[in-house]
Amino acid sequence: MINGIINVYKEKGYTSHDVVAKLRGILKQKKIGHTGTLDPDAEGVLPVCLGNATKLCDILTDKSKAYRAVLLLGITTDTQDITGKVMEERAVTAGKEEILEAILSFRGSYDQIPPMYSALKVGGKRLYELAREGKEIPRESRKVELHSITVESLDMNTKEAVIVVECSKGTYIRTLCHDIGEKLLCGGCMKALTRIRSGEFDITESLKLGEIETEYKNGTLDEHVKSVPAMFPEYECVTVKKEFDKQLYNGNFLVLNQLEQEKINVSNNKVLVYDGENNFVGIYEYCPEQEIIKPYKMFL
After folding, report:
1. C-alpha count within 13 angstroms, C-beta hemisphere, residue 145
2. Sign of the Cα pseudo-torsion (71, 77, 78, 82, in order)
């Protein structure tokens, strides 16, 4: 079984679940999980956890993201993207400078209302299920952080702007496009979306499913799989004395004199723990008051 994280380029037409299902067939293993959905019409970076690295899915989902999107002004749809039903068409009367100013004004924190066509659950049902039933329910706004917005191009003839957004988890780029359009009083929707970065995974190093299958058949896929410890270069590494390996494997806490290191210097209170044979076992929390380390996530 392969253990680690692979940077998948999700192509258009696939859901994130489709990617996982296809990888299970390619790699012939069941234990696979993705780290955050991408809409079927979106493409780009989708980190996928393999084997025991699936325990990282929740951590990697929390990472910041970066997207390149095409904003189309003058059209409002029920899904907030071009695939939806057109609800309204309005003239774009704003000039180029006004449009640029409106787009850039969303930098920083803002309260975003999740779209009805989203996977968020309300009362046990996903919003998109309710939307498909023709229902719309009130949604509470959520604070999102747009670390940066760059306008790569703005075509006043087609009323399209290509924007690059770096943002916190939970940000809906199609809702951002909708909100920009509302601010300009002309409406707007998302025409295209590519995730160019998720955490430390960049689109330039991503592999399409076909490329992954070729690498797997050639026996070279390991070169593209990132190990769990490699995901946390900021964490200090500690080794347990061989005679205490059994205690380590059982998931017990360990006192410092059971480690090869006499002292731990950490600023983020997490350490990578290896057994007496130098095999990675898990991420532990360091508790300086008790001078112990205790399990946070085990990867046996």
Report:
1. 7
2. negative
Quick check: 12 and 38 in contact, CB under 8 A? no
The encoded tokens of residue 189 equal: 């929707």
The one-letter code for the residue type at 22 is K
* CATH code of the domain in which 238 resides: 2.30.130.10
Query: Residue type for 276, please?
Result: G
Write the pLDDT tens digit of every residue in 51-62.
999 999 888 888
Tell me the per-residue pLDDT of 190-244, one tens digit each, with 9 for 90 and over: 999 999 999 999 999 999 999 999 999 999 999 999 999 999 988 999 999 999 9
Total structural domains within the chain:
3
Whole-model pTM: value is 0.89
The Cα–Cα gap between 211 and 229 comes to: 25
Say yes or no: 254 and 275 in one domain. yes
**Residue 245 a catalytic site member:** no
Domain range for 108 is 65-198
Question: How many angstroms separate the first and last alpha carbons of the chain?
Answer: 13
Amino acid in the structure at residue 293: I
Catalytic residue among 18, 39, 58, 275: 39
